[in-house]
UniProtKB/TrEMBL annotation:
Keyword Ion transport: no
Protein name (database record): Twin-arginine translocation signal domain-containing protein
Alphabetized Pfam families for the sequence: Ni_hydr_CYTB, Oxidored_molyb
Main location: membrane
Compartmental location: Cell membrane
Keyword terms: Cell membrane, Membrane, Transmembrane, Transmembrane helix
Membrane topology: Multi-pass membrane protein
Length: 421
């Protein structure tokens, strides 16, 4: 068994498989995971804020940038994680498989980290397409796995810190010529395993028999050069990012081949995530008796769409930026929420609860902190891109505010309530 494991490692030897390369790719992968974790936390707390939390409303494109970066970093994890697995694959054939408790902890943590990482980035990618072929709730599991992965990443870094420190700024074994096989290391490994270039006695005769039997002797795979490997990883990252990032960043829109949303495609030039038919609000949204009700304490007022249109109108340019990573800048026109808040004498530090005409849905009701309520860019929107708001975009009225996820830009508004602490 020892001999077979050694031969497997020797057959898998490649200039691209060395500690220095593992550190380089691991560094990039670690950065991608940390970026995903940080931007993911920001998105999570925007949707489920703690009572004391307040969020910036400027720049107005903040959430578009942060969530777009979150999705891009997550997509880049695919080639980076596969590259890291390629580098360390020969380590699976170490003998003995477990050398100590620390080694067992290391191997177990790596197995758990790889498995959790693959689940995390896969369900995250499928979420961008709004496809959920699993029985568990996506948001809760994705959030919990984020914490698990960061904990495992810290543990892995702690265990591998001596190697990381040694090869962080050094080429180490990677200084050899790209196309040269690592014969010297293979021979040194034989010495480590057997105590000599080849053991004597029965064991030596067994090894000689294995060497003379083609069916039992592993065939060496073609070596991959370091430059070729890094070029492949770089091209793969550029491809997966470049061919999807256009759904968030306009300069790359022409390259958006695989992104689930395309800029400018949809009613009034804006994509739609949840349609009126899916929300089952078409009849109630188009009903002639619709009114928007505002309450603050004992004060309650209702406004028809005609009354809202007769109020001072404000035009703003803000994006719809969704958690799936796509965004679309658009021109909105409507009544400032702060003006409506003043009409019901709402406290300037009050949060608002927004209620949609939807009867079901995770975001049928959302809450908006005072930093958004009092921002002059926050509107009860009545028009989109110079036209009456389409029912797919929230007719007769919807909320639009700077720096908020699209799921919180409540469509088909029916009620707005002031919440005092």
């Amino acid at each position: 068994m020892r001999r077979m494991m050694y031969e497997a490692q020797r057959a898998l030897a490649s200039p691209a498989r060395n500690p220095r390369m593992a550190v380089v790719i691991g560094r990039l992968l670690g950065i991608a995971f940390i970026v995903c974790f940080g931007t993911g936390l920001y998105s999570h707390f925007l949707q489920e804020p703690l009572p004391w939390m307040r969020f910036p409303t400027r720049p107005a494109l903040l959430y578009q940038f942060s969530q777009g970066t979150h999705i891009i970093a997550g997509i880049a994890c695919f080639p980076l994680l596969l590259a890291k697995l390629y580098i360390v694959f020969p380590d699976l054939f170490q003998y003995p498989p477990v050398k100590s408790f620390l080694h067992l902890l290391e191997r177990a943590s790596i197995a758990l980290f790889v498995g959790a990482s693959l689940v995390q980035i896969t369900i995250g990618l499928l979420n961008t397409y709004q496809w959920y072929p699993w029985p568990f709730p996506f948001r809760e599991v994705h959030y919990a796995l984020g914490w698990v992965l960061i904990g495992l990443l810290v543990l892995h870094i702690g265990i591998k810190l001596p190697i990381i420190t040694r090869f962080w700024n050094r080429r180490g074994d990677a200084e050899r010529d790209d196309d040269e096989h690592d014969a010297t290391v293979a021979e040194d490994e034989a010495v480590r395993l057997w105590g000599s270039r080849r053991p004597s006695g029965v064991t030596g005769r067994l090894i000689a028999w294995i060497d003379a039997t083609p069916a039992l002797k592993p065939t060496a795979t073609p070596a991959v050069s370091r430059r070729g490997f890094l070029t492949t990883v770089g091209v793969a990252c550029a491809a997966v990012v470049g061919l999807t990032a256009g759904q968030t960043f306009a300069p790359l829109d022409a390259l958006n081949v695989f992104g689930p949303r395309k800029k400018g495609v949809g009613q009034q030039g804006v994509p739609v995530n949840r349609t009126a038919e899916e929300a089952k609000v078409t009849a109630s949204a188009l009903a002639t008796g619709w009114v928007l009700t505002l309450t603050a304490g004992d004060v309650e007022r209702s406004f028809s769409r005609t009354e809202l249109e007769s109020m001072p109108q404000t035009e703003v340019e803000l994006p719809i930026a969704c958690v799936e990573g796509w965004s679309q800048l658009a021109v909105w026109r409507g009544v400032r929420l702060s003006d409506l808040a003043d009409l019901v004498a709402a406290d300037t530090q009050a949060s608002f609860r927004l209620t949609s005409l939807e009867e079901r849905g995770s975001f049928r009701q959302t809450e908006m902190g005072p930093e958004y309520v009092r921002d002059p860019l926050t509107l009860v929107a009545l028009e989109l891109n110079g036209e009456t708001l389409d029912v797919q975009h929230g007719y007769p009225a919807r909320m639009i505010a700077p720096g908020r996820p699209g799921v919180l830009q409540t469509k088909w508004l029916s009620r707005i309530e002031a919440i005092t602490a």
